[in-house]
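User: Please predict the structure of the protein below. I'd like the answer in structure-token form so I can feed it into my own downstream comparison script.

Assistant: Understood. Taking the following sequence of 318 residues as input:
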Amino acid sequence: MIRTHFESRHVALALTAIVFLTLGGTAIWLWGLGGDTQLARWAAQEQQYVQNALAQGLRALKQGDAGAFMALLSLCFAYGFFHAAGPGHGKVILGGYGLSQRVPLRRLSLLAVSSSLAQSGTAIVLVLGGLSVLNWGRTQLTDLAEDVLAPLSYGLIAALGVWLIIRGGRKFLHRSSSQTAHSHDHYHHHGHDHAHGACPSCGHKHGPTLEEAANATSLRDGLAIVASVAIRPCTGAIFLLLLTWRMDLVAAGIAGVIAMGLGTATVTLAVALAATTLRKTTLQHLESTLAQRLAASLEVFAGLLVATIALQILFRAL
């Protein structure tokens, strides 16, 4: 039994080392050896190809060609996919969040789709509002998106990364101090006849339960993630909406932008699910105390990764 325990521990530690080496090696290749530049070049080439096809698709739609609308939506979905495949902020924050927190797959999926669709919504409101209310042109809209909203988004994501570092550090210190304080034998009586979280004298709750506090934290995290991604509209979405506005195909443009958001969501969702699966696989073989410490370390590591990448993108944008 003892041998099995030690073997499981060694396997878990080996998996942990592999995880950190893999993540570290990927980060070095992407941002130390120019891998992000190669990835960005490939994604930009594919986006340019899809943009040209989009212009042709819009002309076919204007002429009333059969199947032109569905072809347009397919192209928009492909554009969103290639846009997200390049170095970007959406998958960085969602992947980092999935790596740092124990998040249910359904909630993580909802976050990925919500943030991408909210980003599409920002583009729709910005372009249609700018064109119809403010009489802005393409230059003003793209300048606002690229020179103001994009740096703001990157800054917010960097701040979220710093918050993950702080929170993970606090958890690690708390786990260490708790382990030290409870290293002696003790007896703890917990018998009672009232509900958890309720006052024994009046039966009412005077504060949130641990589950409610965790849910509130998750909600705040989710809103912050969606806001940091959504505040920066996709340039391709702005391009499409401008074209469809001029061609009197606004409804098709809105539908296309939503399809772009769904295409983006496929990549961000894949990255986020891979991160949370990696976290689960790494921690499930460890004993409780070691798993808690490693979970806190993963949160710090994820925060460092998110903050570093976001700041690098921010400095490039300035």
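That's the full token string. The two ends are 59 Å apart (CA to CA).
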